[in-house]
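Input sequence (351 aa), recorded before submission:
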Amino acid sequence: MYIIMKKNLFLSLALAAICISSCSDKEEPAEQDVYLEIVTEIQTRSTIVKTEFADDDRLLINAGGTRTTGTYSSGKWTLNPPIRLEKGETLDVTAVCPYIVTDITAVPVDVRQQTDCLYATATATQTSPVAHLGMKHALSSLAFNIQGAGTVESISFVLPADGTLDATRGVVSPGDKAPLTLSVERGMEPEGWTEEVPDIFVIPNTRLSALTVRIDGRDYTVDVEHTIDQGMKYMFRLAYAGNLLALSGIEAIPMDQYTDDIREPVHGRTLTVTYTSVAGFHVTIPKLDATTGLVHWGDGTEEPYAENVTHRYQAGTHVMVLETMGGTGTFSIPGIEYVEEIDLRNFHINK
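Predicted structure, token format:
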């Protein structure tokens, strides 16, 4: 009985040794390579900016210093070459659209091409390999809503025509300023356009001083003096009546929140006063609640409206016409000694 138990013991030990040897000979399963993936999102309601990607669109992508190209197809991005993620690595990912082979920190932008420029940054790791790229707008945009009657032919201004984008920081550096023109060729509406408001991409981080609007073959220059910040859309609202073009307001809206909705229109008003005297005399301009205006003195002279302006007339009868924009429509005439007639037929609303 003792011998049998000993044999069984030797047999058990031998089987255990074989089992241990067999287990140690098995290779550990190799870790599978993990590659960078990207998804993109563009949030905007603007009329000229890119709102979604289409098949064959491409992105310039920099992943941890390695350049790759992202190509869009059937709702997914494919990277060529693929980017492998290493264990413990956090990869900084930067993307730019439209695609151009360049340094990601010095991407050239040129608004003469009128192409939306998007950029985004994100990170990815081996355990979280999908980089979620929320595409932002590198440029800015100007929109113009002009109310009145007549045809707006073009709008011109001076701003940088090009610049460079450091996509890693999301900063555009403007180049030299140059004349830029937006062709419009569109008839005005009495209360402004309600759809397809003319707009144009511009280089941001600069300052706009003036606009020149050509209406029915004549140029009107309006001072604006406004800073153009990045990623913003600026709605310039203007009103035209007779020979007067006035800026009624400027609205700054993030490009992902812009719509063509219009606000209450600005009305033009014309006040006509007839003065008469048998000798030379002075008059003080009527005082009005108005945004801007132009006074035609009726003796061949005219000047912009300003409070407390005086004018000397020669003896006789003179018809002063005061065109104004905006305000509540209230007025007063300082001194009525030489006033013969006040014509209010076109004062309330002049469309």
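Checked by second reader. The helical segments are 2-25.
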